[in-house]
Design brief:
Layout (H helix, E strand, L loop, with lengths): L1 E5 L5 H4 L7 E4 L7 E4 L15 E4 L9 H6 L4 E2 L6 H16 L2 H9 L7 H11 L12 E5 L3 H12 L3 E5 L5 H6 L5 E2 L3 H7 L2 E4 L13 H4 L6 E5 L8 H9 L3 E6 L12 E3 L8 H21 L19 E8 L4 H11 L4 E9 L2 E8 L5 H9 L3 E8 L1
Parallel strand pairs: 1-2, 1-3, 3-4, 4-5, 6-7, 6-9, 7-8, 9-10, 10-11, 11-12
Antiparallel strand pairs: 13-15, 13-16, 14-15
Helix pairs in contact: 3-6
The structure holds nicotinamide-adenine-dinucleotide (NAD) and 3-phosphoglyceric acid (3PG).
The site of 3-phosphoglyceric acid has 9 residues, from loops.
């Protein structure tokens, strides 16, 4: 029975992929096998020594102490692309809010609750609606920063709205490049993107290198009247710099899914409560994807969509499997195989892959491993953890 600690509201459709015959799910466990979460900011002390995997139902994993997980040989999974459509749709709504007097018009209409005569109200609205005139998106330039799952969907949607699309992504994957229409113009640097775009939308992860990326210097490059949208992460934008840019007119509007107190009450800011991925569909997609990945890992050691471990899949064979995480240095695999050979255990199949400082091995064996041998394997220099999976 695997114990899974759930630290956020996870879609029941995803949880149902972890059958009650094999899984216990709860919001509290002293020694869970895995943690399943969304945006909960996971503290180091919440990761018990028993934890073998952490699954994030969503895209961003900046709420998880990744370096520590890697050090402890814990793979962290996410659900790439599973909520991208939800974010795309909200960004399109954000573009409309940034170009038309929608919110201002709605607020105005809501001040007219004292009126009783419909004809009189209609006359007043026809007179006042000029205050809420906006501009069309067609013909405007959208700058997309980060052209991954979300950015590429937004680029496509914006093109179909008649916008020009320019993009910047210094780490674009081959798959992401294939998804991008050729009419998206690739910019060599952020400064040129900021200088050309009427709307700029951010869709990159927060890393040390992207923290505060949108700062005073970059905002100084903005085309006057530009509208900035941040549906990526709070930390990517220096909010004080944004407030100065709004005050001096280099930015016309800031639309964000990450409110902070200093932004509240401004007419030139639209704040949403981190609802980019809050649709039934996105929540289900994310939960199903990570639950399946977690189930596969706990049952067979296979890894798919990990952000810190190599991906690898091996069909089960033999009597049992060893799943071994070790430091990515020479001779460790040799020592493991040496111990198995000394114990006269035949390797039926195996797969070894590495990613940065981590190496991970699936080794299928012709006979069962006893606890003495497991202890010896775990004690090998450079081995981080060893899991025995019985078929
Ligand atoms: N508001 C929400 O609810 C919500 C929902 C989903 C994702 N997000 C955020 O959006 C981010 C992107 O999500 P995704 O699914 O598109 O991820 P993704 O991994 O598919 O795409 C991210 C892209 O950013 C690029 N990138 C990395 N560093 C960059 C840099 N310095 N400049 C420009 N591009 C850079 C990568 O190469 C990649 O193509 C997530 O990491 C998460 O923080 C927010
Ligand atoms: O990175 C993500 O996937 C989003 O920020 C969604 O976060 P949530 O699952 O807490 O809505």
């Amino acid at each position: 029975m695997h114990k899974v600690l759930t630290l956020n509201q996870i879609s029941p459709k995803g949880l149902s992929r972890l059958p009650i015959s094999d899984y216990e799910l709860a919001g509290e466990f002293s020694a869970p096998d895995a943690i399943l979460l969304r945006s909960h900011k996971l503290q180091i002390e919440e990761i018990a020594p028993s934890v073998k995997a952490i699954a994030r139902a969503g895209a961003g994993t900046n709420n998880i102490p990744l370096a520590l997980c890697t050090e402890r040989g814990i793979p962290v999974f996410n659900s790439p692309g599973a909520n991208a459509n939800a974010v795309k749709e909200l960004v399109i709504a954000g573009l409309a809010l940034g170009s038309r007097g929608i919110l201002e018009g709605i607020s105005y209409v809501n001040t007219l609750g004292h009126m009783t005569d419909a004809a009189e109200m209609a006359k007043l609205l026809e007179k006042e609606k000029k205050q809420f005139k906006g501009n069309e998106l067609a013909g405007r330039t959208l700058g997309v920063v980060g052209l991954g799952a979300i950015g590429s969907m937004i680029a496509n949607a914006a093109l179909s709205l008649g916008m020009e699309v320019i993009g910047y992504d210094p780490a674009l994957s081959v798959d992401a490049a294939w998804r991008l229409p050729s009419s998206v113009k690739k910019m060599d640097n952020l400064n040129s993107l900021f200088a050309r775009a009427d709307f700029i939308t951010l869709h990159l992860p927060v890393f040390e290198s992207t923290r505060g990326l949108v700062n005073t210097d970059l905002l100084a490059c903005c085309k006057p009247g530009c509208c900035l949208l941040n549906f990526a992460r709070e930390e990517i934008v220096d909010v004080s710099a944004v407030i100065r840019a709004l005050d001096n007119g280099s930015l016309r509007k800031f639309i964000t899914d990450f409110p902070v107190p200093a932004l509240i009450g401004r007419a030139d800011v639209v704040l949403m409560p981190h609802i980019g991925a809050s649709t039934d569909e996105a929540e289900e997609n994310c939960a199903i994807m990570v639950a399946d990945q977690l189930n596969d890992f706990l049952r067979s050691g296979n890894i798919k969509n990990s952000v810190n471990f190599p991906n690898l899949q091996l069909d089960p064979s033999g009597q049992c499997r060893l799943a071994i995480a070790n430091h990515n240095v020479p001779k460790i695999l040799g020592s493991v195989l040496g111990l198995l050979a000394d114990a006269d255990i035949n390797v039926v199949d195996m797969l070894n892959k590495s990613r940065d400082e981590i190496a991970y091995n699936l080794i299928d064996l012709g006979s069962v491993v006893d606890s003495d041998l497991l202890t010896k394997l775990r004690a090998l220099d450079g081995v981080i953890n060893v899991r025995l999976i019985q078929w």
